[in-house]
Amino acid sequence: MTSISVKQKLMLLPDQPGCYLMKNEFGKVIYVGKAKVLKNRVKSYFSGTHDGKTQRLVSEIRDFEYIVTSTEMEALVLEMNLIKKHDPRYNVMLKDDKSYPYLKITAEKQPRLLYIRKIKKDGGKYFGPFVNAYAAQETKKLLDRIFPLRKCDTMPKRVCLYYHIGQCLGPCVYDVTEQENKKMVDGIVKFLNGGYQDVKNELSEKMLEASEALNFERAKELRDQIQHIEAVMEKQKMMTADLVDRDVFGYHFDKGWMCVQVFFIRQGKVIARDISVFPFYGEANEDLLTFIGQFYLQKNHLLPKEILLPQEVDAHLVSELLQVKVLQPKKGQKKELVELATKNASLALHEKFALIEQDEARTIKAVENLGERIGIAAPYRIEAFDNSNIHGTDPVSAMVVFVDGKPYKKDYRKYKIKSVEGPDDYASMKEVVRRRYTRVLREEGELPNLILIDGGKGQISAAQDVLENELNLFIPVAGLSKDEKHRTSQLWIGDPPEMIHLARNSQEFYLLQRIQDEVHRFAISFHRKVRSKSMFESTLDSIAGIGDKRKKMLLRHFGSLKKLKEATVDEIQAAGVPKPVAELIEKAFLSNE
């Protein structure tokens, strides 16, 4: 229901472009959007009918603010920056990192050929993306044999193995001229820009010569190299007569979901495609613009020479934003490419739609059912805690967050217990709850709708005491106890706590199981790490010459006590420890065996 303050704000909205930020009851930004006309776009959320997902967004809105911009371009850029800053839960586009392999020639005085997945503005030459990561790596190995550029990250003082096997000219010791480097770089560029056919023909001739000489092992190696070239450079059918690098966008939307397909065309061939499926809450064309902006400017996909877009998208805005040639073809082969991308987007969305809808409905329904069973509003945000210690040693606690029934790992937290000595679960729980929600209040963060505690009545009472009597917070707290087989068994809630019976085959019971298993896993893994470090440091305490600085250095170098025990004096020395101290370390471990 729209509050009076929201209704008043709606009346004051301007007829100008800009961005709007929707907020929930805690003042947390839950959605960021842009609009050509703020007045029309924002009002549309509070009038008419919406699909289930958008209705959920609207039901959580308690306030909004807006920022007027001079142009649509400014609104698009501002929207992307605001999404990056606030990470709103309903702006889900491009949250999953997608990276593709590229080959890169560095812009150093002694250049290198690298296999990378992130594009940087560093003057290097980039080639890709490649559809087959393994084949791209093998192609790099092939190019390393043919063009022996420098391999080492930093120049060593003497030549390395690569020099001895003919894959480096040894610029660390020998004078490799700028002309020699340029010749090799030009060769690699030519190869990756289509000149690979000459190299392939040369390898084919050498393969026949090796076969005729009965050198079958060498012939097989050359055959594999040819196949790697084909896998990377010749796998796809020729799509265009020219050799222009271009990306082709197609999209389809239905029932609040959108699928965007991007075809990467390099050297006239479709070498890879990107498929993204996500819910959207604004206008489809507008959200596609945001997607394209994020795709290149925030995810650092390499900009091609040309981008092809469907007719209904604002091509001028994309061209201005990215400073690249943008076309909306009306006929010919380029139009067919856009239609093909659009058709694939439609097929992909309909193929995945049933599964997406089913998964969304199941998890949201489980959350809503859980709220009904325990007598609270649907707990769309759940925070769960678990303590971990062995006889009171190295006590830690962990917290996981589930949003809409799914893990929200960005907000996971780990805690070392500071104020409690010995195995006291109640005191530990009080400390962690106090630390967690004192900080949330101080930073005006988002509070949960439900807190889950690993334990029964005692742990619930401990958490409630801190929340209500110290922090004046009245958040429902429930306890999850386990049976003799360490499986989720009972749910407790209330004051005093009462057991809630949930059917073991219900979706809400499965949700609680997933949460309890996840927080337990997170706590145990953290405890093992802390305990391992503690054992590592305590073992070294008795050795002369080992202070805090060297402990940290050894832990960073070896990673575990086991690996340090197995190390030789020379290996310990290589970690930066003087030989006499390294000998003492080895002697200490030998005497303890």
From TrEMBL:
<keyword id="KW-0175">Coiled coil</keyword>
<feature type="domain" description="UVR">
    <location>
        <begin position="197"/>
        <end position="232"/>
    </location>
</feature>
<dbReference type="InterPro" id="IPR050066">
    <property type="entry name" value="UvrABC_protein_C"/>
</dbReference>
<dbReference type="InterPro" id="IPR004791">
    <property type="entry name" value="UvrC"/>
</dbReference>
<dbReference type="InterPro" id="IPR035901">
    <property type="entry name" value="GIY-YIG_endonuc_sf"/>
</dbReference>
<keyword id="KW-0267">Excision nuclease</keyword>
<dbReference type="Pfam" id="PF01541">
    <property type="entry name" value="GIY-YIG"/>
</dbReference>
<keyword id="KW-0963">Cytoplasm</keyword>
<comment type="subunit">
    <text>Interacts with UvrB in an incision complex.</text>
</comment>
<dbReference type="Pfam" id="PF14520">
    <property type="entry name" value="HHH_5"/>
</dbReference>
<comment type="similarity">
    <text>Belongs to the UvrC family.</text>
</comment>
<keyword id="KW-0234">DNA repair</keyword>
<keyword id="KW-0228">DNA excision</keyword>
<dbReference type="Pfam" id="PF22920">
    <property type="entry name" value="UvrC_RNaseH"/>
</dbReference>
<keyword id="KW-0742">SOS response</keyword>
<dbReference type="InterPro" id="IPR001162">
    <property type="entry name" value="UvrC_RNase_H_dom"/>
</dbReference>
<protein>
    <recommendedName>
        <fullName>UvrABC system protein C</fullName>
    </recommendedName>
</protein>
<comment type="function">
    <text>The UvrABC repair system catalyzes the recognition and processing of DNA lesions. UvrC both incises the 5' and 3' sides of the lesion. The N-terminal half is responsible for the 3' incision and the C-terminal half is responsible for the 5' incision.</text>
</comment>
<dbReference type="Pfam" id="PF08459">
    <property type="entry name" value="UvrC_RNaseH_dom"/>
</dbReference>
<feature type="domain" description="UvrC family homology region profile">
    <location>
        <begin position="248"/>
        <end position="467"/>
    </location>
</feature>
<dbReference type="InterPro" id="IPR001943">
    <property type="entry name" value="UVR_dom"/>
</dbReference>
<feature type="domain" description="GIY-YIG">
    <location>
        <begin position="15"/>
        <end position="92"/>
    </location>
</feature>
<dbReference type="Pfam" id="PF02151">
    <property type="entry name" value="UVR"/>
</dbReference>
<dbReference type="InterPro" id="IPR010994">
    <property type="entry name" value="RuvA_2-like"/>
</dbReference>
<keyword id="KW-0227">DNA damage</keyword>
<dbReference type="InterPro" id="IPR000305">
    <property type="entry name" value="GIY-YIG_endonuc"/>
</dbReference>
<dbReference type="InterPro" id="IPR038476">
    <property type="entry name" value="UvrC_RNase_H_dom_sf"/>
</dbReference>
<dbReference type="InterPro" id="IPR036876">
    <property type="entry name" value="UVR_dom_sf"/>
</dbReference>
<feature type="coiled-coil region">
    <location>
        <begin position="200"/>
        <end position="239"/>
    </location>
</feature>
<dbReference type="InterPro" id="IPR047296">
    <property type="entry name" value="GIY-YIG_UvrC_Cho"/>
</dbReference>
